């Protein structure tokens, strides 16, 4: 059955399942795992590059955010490698990238982080842009996809 047929079950996260989507998930996931673990486990090195030196016992929140980012990165990698389709959609990955970019910008504006954080904000905007292009490309390659996604699925009658 064609994906545009109203009685075809909707595909979960079709954009992220595309080859481009899987590549973005893997690259974004690797970036998050490396960056998140660097912040969480090597906090003193992270401080020497970015932050004024604070008492490390008070840096538990920074470590927790690093672990959350690393965990989401690992989930992105696993999702991008799944053959039967990803479990994380492109819109979620794009949203996380935008939230991190805003967080970077707010931390810079309030003086919590130095201007070096703009490099990460730029990378995050890049990830969001890649997802936006993938989403637009996916919808523009087959205009009936949006209609197929918004048409309610009616399972066939048993019998």
TrEMBL record:
Superkingdom per UniProt: Bacteria
Transmembrane region(s): 29-48, 60-80, 92-113, 119-139
Record key words, sorted: Membrane, Transmembrane, Transmembrane helix
Protein name according to UniProt: Uncharacterized protein
Species whose genome carries this gene: Frigoriglobus tundricola
Organism classification: Bacteria, Pseudomonadati, Planctomycetota, Planctomycetia, Gemmatales
């Amino acid at each position: 059955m064609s994906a545009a047929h109203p009685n075809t079950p909707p595909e979960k996260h079709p954009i992220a399942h595309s080859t481009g989507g899987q590549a973005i998930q893997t690259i974004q996931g690797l970036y998050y795992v490396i960056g998140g673990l660097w912040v969480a486990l090597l906090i003193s090195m992270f401080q020497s590059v970015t932050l004024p030196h604070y008492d490390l016992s008070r840096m538990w929140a920074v470590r927790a955010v690093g672990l959350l980012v690393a965990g989401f990165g690992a989930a992105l990698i696993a999702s991008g490698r799944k053959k039967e389709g990803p479990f994380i959609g492109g819109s979620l990955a794009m949203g996380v990238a935008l939230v991190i970019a805003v967080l970077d910008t707010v931390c810079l504006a309030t003086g919590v982080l130095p201007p070096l954080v703009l490099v990460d904000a730029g990378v995050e905007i890049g990830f969001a842009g890649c997802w936006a292009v993938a989403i637009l490309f996916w919808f523009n390659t087959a205009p009936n996809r949006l209609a197929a996604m918004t048409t309610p699925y009616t399972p066939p009658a048993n019998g």
